[in-house]
Amino acid sequence: MLCCMPDVAFVPALLVSWSSAAFIISYAIAVLEGHVEPLVPYISDTGTKPPESGVFGFMINISALLGAITMYIRYLLIEKQNESSHFVRSSCNMFSLCIGLLGCTGMGIVATFQELAVPSVHDIGALVAFGSGVVYITLQSIISYKSCPKWNTYFVCHIRMAISAISCIAFIPMIVFASQVSMTKIDWTPGEKDYTYHFMSAICEWTVAFGFIFFFLTFIRDFQRFSVRISTEIHED
After folding, report:
1. Which residues contact 233 (CB under 8 A, 6 or more apart)?
2. Is residue 172 scored above 90 in pLDDT?
3. Residue ranges in 33-118 assigned as alpha helix (H)
């Protein structure tokens, strides 16, 4: 049996739209419920208390799954293109996929273990998700340049590298400022101790998160000319 998916561009498109909705909906509920201040909370702050915690956990877990599927299709796409062009080592492509899947696992941890319930596990998951995500998009940007001009335009490569650079730059102060926050809480107000560190770290966190979203948005065009065939063999005893 042979199943063919002729246009897989809907996968990154769904990932981008679903992830954006996850952030926006959980943020809106958290603000309307009075659980967080409207001015730049941490992303995790918007998914800590019910009812938004249920929405956040469910939607981010789906985003992690969609991210893993997108990364795997991207891996297959590069492998197929590499058959004729030989622009990147297969081991490098596999390493990029593994790093990406590690980031998706981190997202699952963030969605499952709330910030106030199990802060240490949540923080490890967030560090894995953001750190692996930044490495993944940087590797994909480099691979994109190697595939030019046959498989990518330099304009798209420049966009990807710019997003990667901004995400990398934002990731470092995100960690540095977060490490200076001495308390774990979600109801921050201006003037409190460590509020400035929290505020700056949160801005960087949102920057990195939407950097990932905009990066995967650039995959849609590549996926439009790629189809996936799934072969299933049935053996009769």
Report:
1. 1
2. yes
3. 52-85, 90-112
